[in-house]
Each structure stands twice: as C-alpha cells, then as structure tokens.
Design a protein that fits this description.
This is Root phototropism 2. The chain is an alpha+beta fold. It is built from 24 helices and eleven strands.
C-alpha cells in the first residue's frame, strides 16, 4: 500500500497532473500540489493564510541553490527519498531554513554531523557552498559544524592547500569566528597566527593598489577616504584583537607585511596599532634596511622609542640597526636634518658604546646639504664627544666638513677620557698586585710542613713563593681509571702550584723524587703519577699533619 502511494505521489510529482500551484524559481516553473507543500513547509502555509499567492503562483527570486535545489525540496515534500551529500547539504539546509521545513533541517544537520568526521576533505565543498550562499548559511548550524571539523584538522596538522584556500576566502565575520573557536579550543598560538597572517596577507594583495595610493598620496587634512583600505583596517582590528594575548606576530608574519600593516594602522588609527607596534619593535633588528627606509620617519621614531621604553631591543643591536638605516637614507639623500635629529634622539646616548658612526653620518649629511656652521654645531649636540676615538677625529679634521671648534673640543674630551682610563688601569693593577702579594705571602705557610698518608711522611719546603704564579685546582680522581680531572679556580696566573719533595718511609731506606699538586679545597697534597701512555694520574692523598695558620686568603669563599 505504501509503495503504491509513493508511486502515485512520484507520478503526480513528475507529471504535474491536477496541479493547483505553480512555483517559479529562476526560469523554471514547478507545477505542484498545495497539500504536500503546506504539509511540510511553514512558509507555504503562511502564504496561504495571508492570501499572498497570486492566482496560485509563487515566485521565489533568490532561492538558495536555485531550481536544482528546489527540485529536491519538492521531492522531499512528496515523500520521495533524496540523496543528501557534501555537494548539496548546504543548499538543502539553507533551503529548509528559507521554507521553514523543520524535518528537512533536522535531517540535513544529522547528515552534516556524519559527513564531516568521515570525510574531512568534504569541508572544502561545504564551506565553498556556504560562502556562495552568504548570510542565510550563517543563520544555520552549518558553520559551527564546519569550524569544529577544521579545528580538529588543525590539531592534527592536516590542513590541506585546498582547505586553506577556502578558509582564506571566508567572509571576515566567519573567519573571526573560526579564529575565536580555534583559540578557545586550545590550538597552538603559532598555528592560529600563521592562518590569520595568511588571511590578512590575502586581503593586502587584493587591496594592494589602493593601499599604495593611500599611503603615498592621501592628504589626511582634506579628509579623503579610501573604502577598500578602511575595510582592511576593520579586518585587521577584527582578526588581530581576537588573537591570544601571547601572540608574537613577528615570529610568523613577514617583515615587509608587518611594516605595511603598521603604516595602515597608524594612518587609520586602528585599535590594533599598539599590538603591531610591539611586534615590529620586537622584529626591528631583523627588518631589511631597504624596507625600513620606505617607512615614514615618524613611524621609525615611534618604533624605536617603544622598543627603548619597554626594553624590547638590545641596545647594541638597536644602535647597529638604526645606524645602518641612517647611513642608507643619507646615501640616498632622502633625509633632512630634522629627521636625522629625531631618529638619533630616540636612542638614549648611554645606549651607544661609541658615537663615531653618528659623527660620520652627520659629516656626509652636511657635505650634501647647504647648512650654516651654527646649524652644524646644533646638530652635533647629538654626539657624545667623550665616546669618540682619535682616528675618527683625525679623518674628519682632514675633510674640513665638521666645524673646527667641535673637533678641538672633542679632542680635549677624548684626551680626558684616555687619561681617566689610564688612571683606572693603574689603580686596578695596583689593587691586583696587592692581592697577589697577599696570596703569595700565604703560600709558604700553607705548603711548608709535614704531610702524611698512612705511615708515609712528606717534609715540604716550597721554593721562593713570592715569585710563584698560582692557579688553584680542585682535583677529582675518576673511580675507574684514576685519570686527572680538575675544576679550576683561577687567581692571576697560568702555572699550577706544584711542589716537589722527597718522601721518607719507615719501611724504606731510600728516597725518591715525586711531584705533588696542592688542592686547597680539600686541604690535601695529591701525588701526581704517570700512566704508561704518559698521562697524568692522581695517586695518594696526603693530609697536613698540623696547620700553623689559615692558608685561604679569601674571606668570602668557603672551602
């Protein structure tokens, strides 16, 4: 009976016999029957109740999936079995939403939850279809299910090029939802940043011409607008502000792109400006000079000041990078005195171990610019003359570009510095000599005397201790080979203090010459022997029979 009824419905569906309603989708007319449609669709029931049908004709101008999808919907309403797969599930789900067919919405959601885990690659077809349908797809459960599948693939590092291509084409609101989902799911930060960076890079390529014109020619005081660039600013804010707080953009975003994004953020006053500023400050020393010189001077100054204020950049590397930047701009004759002044002042004078490079750059700048002596001297206030070197002063004095008054004052400062350095060296040598004498004076008390091991006694009298160079060594004997192993505590010297002595024994009538190493850490004399390969080895350990005084001169070190 059911087969017969199903067959009859199929015949009515296919033939349109006794049709009492015409549904027009695009250029296709469907001659159907009201009852199956009203039975399944709240949309058609509402049309009937409100009397909105004109002569039993309904036109659906923007139907999800078009006539092909509506044909499947009609079959479904007539009770016919339809194939729900990855290529049509999105259209059917959106059509069910459009026509308010609850049962079909439930069936398509169930199908999606089965398709995605079994066929991960199907997310390409599903998301592509969703992008084509737009907002109506966003009103369904399609996107959360797809994003869950993508996040699982991200965890497994199985995002293929096809999937990535589709993700980069998502509307910004959808992409942000994916980023938030990945972040909340605990996806590794670098993976999220790489994906976000590629998305923004795709947008930059799309708006490349507009961005270039905007940054090079826009007159901000005239209030000119550039919709595409402003859209990019909104995209940057939407994505970057949702990234994890531990995000380090400089690790995964190309330097050139990072600089471009920062310039856009500054001009548009984007909320993500501070985030980009930190990223570019972190990466400043890795940015190629040819990219850095294309940035506005004010941006470079902001980057340097941010790095200095937050101790982000090594002073040495910062000075090296900025000196290279200044050299390049000076050679290009593309920097004014005001810009030179602003960039140099952004770095504290104390950061620079030497100021020779600043003086030499200023010299080149002066030689290519007509400038008064007064202005030269004002600019040279940036130079710490105390940190100049004699050779640099000799070179600039020969070229007659730097004012002679500056050279004279600098020479005096250098002389003063050298005199102070010489005085400091003398003081350190005197202090060192005093310490050495204290150590040497204690050596004879330390070493001389009797040392014992079992019934063997050593009578030690060192040679002239005042002329000894001392290197103390903690000697460890390896259990297996007894080869010599030393942990050194060096004190001004290059020769280990060794003593030679003649040992006497109650069991021996003769004497023998031996070498011993003094180990102050364990208060022992160690007999040094030789292996058959002539390698030094540790022999017996002799203990001092009686200490007459403390040998260790350092009060802050405990043995």
């Amino acid at each position: 009976m059911l087969l017969t009824r199903s067959k009859e419905l199929r015949e009515f569906r296919n033939s349109g016999e006794l049709s009492d309603i015409c549904v027009i989708v695009g250029n296709t007319e469907f001659h159907l029957h009201k009852f199956p449609l009203f039975l399944n669709s709240e949309f058609f029931r509402a049309l009937c109740r409100c009397g909105m049908m004109d002569e039993n004709t309904v036109t659906l101008p923007q139907f999800p999936g078009g006539a092909k999808t509506f044909a499947l919907i009609a079959d479904y309403c007539y009770g016919l079995e339809i194939d729900i797969n990855s290529r049509n599930v999105v259209e059917l789900r959106c059509a069910a939403e459009f026509l308010q067919i609850t049962s079909l919405g439930r069936d398509t959601s169930t199908a999606l939850s089965k398709i995605l885990p079994r066929q991960p690659a199907s997310v390409v077809d599903i998301l592509s279809s969703a992008c084509q349908l737009g907002e109506i797809a966003n009103q369904t459960s399609i996107l959360p299910l797809c994003f869950d599948a993508v996040i699982i693939l991200m965890k497994k590092d199985k995002i293929s090029e096809n999937i990535l291509e589709v993700l980069l084409e998502l509307p910004i609101e959808w992409f942000v939802a994916l980023i938030i989902g990945a972040r909340d799911a605990g996806i590794a930060v670098p993976k999220i940043i790489r994906l976000a960076g590629k998305y923004i890079e795709t947008m930059v390529v799309e708006y490349q011409i507009s961005i270039k014109e905007y940054l090079e020619h826009r007159r901000h005081d005239e209030g000119e607008a550039c919709t595409s660039v402003e859209d990019l600013g909104d995209i940057m804010d939407a994505i970057l502000l949702e990234l994890p707080k531990t995000t380090s953009l400089s690790d995964v975003v190309d330097s050139e792109l990072l600089c471009l994004l920062y310039r856009v953020a500054v001009q548009l006053r984007c909320k993500c400006e501070s985030m980009l500023l930190t990223a570019i400050s972190n990466n400043l020393c890795a940015i190629p000079c040819e990219i850095l010189v294309t940035m506005p001077t004010s941006d470079v100054v902001s980057i340097v000041e941010h790095g200095v204020h937050n101790n982000i950049i090594s002073p040495t590397m910062l000075c090296k990078t900025i000196d290279g930047y200044l050299w390049e701009r000076t050679k290009q004759k593309h920097i004014t005195l005001e810009e030179f002044d602003a960039v140099v002042r952004a770095i504290p004078k104390s950061y620079r171990p030497q100021h020779d490079s600043i003086l030499l750059i200023a010299e080149v700048l002066f030689s290519s610019t007509k400038i008064s002596e007064e202005m030269k001297l004002k600019t040279l206030d940036l130079v710490d003359t105390y940190k100049l070197h004699e050779e640099t002063l000799r070179l600039v004095s020969e070229r007659n570009v730097i004012p002679s008054t500056f050279i004279v004052s600098s020479a005096l400062a250098v002389s003063f510095r050298l005199r102070n350095e010489l005085t400091e060296v003398k003081a350190k040598l005197a202090e060192k000599d005093h310490d050495i004498r204290e150590v040497h004076s204690s050596i004879s008390d330390v070493i001389q005397g009797q040392w014992e091991y079992n019934d063997v006694t050593l009578n030690v009298t060192p040679k002239d201790a005042s002329n000894a160079r001392v290197q103390f060594a903690k000697v460890l004997a390896l259990n297996t080979s007894k080869e010599l192993s030393m942990e050194h505590q060096v004190y001004d010297g290059k020769l280990t203090l060794c003593v030679r002595s003649r040992g006497t024994s109650t069991q021996s009538c003769g004497t023998s010459s031996k070498t011993f190493l003094f180990d102050p850490f364990n208060e022992q004399l160690l007999e040094i022997t030789r292996s058959k390969h002539d390698n030094p080895m540790v022999g017996e350990h002799y203990e001092k029979k009686k200490h007459t005084s403390s040998y260790w001169p350092f009060t802050d070190i405990k043995s």
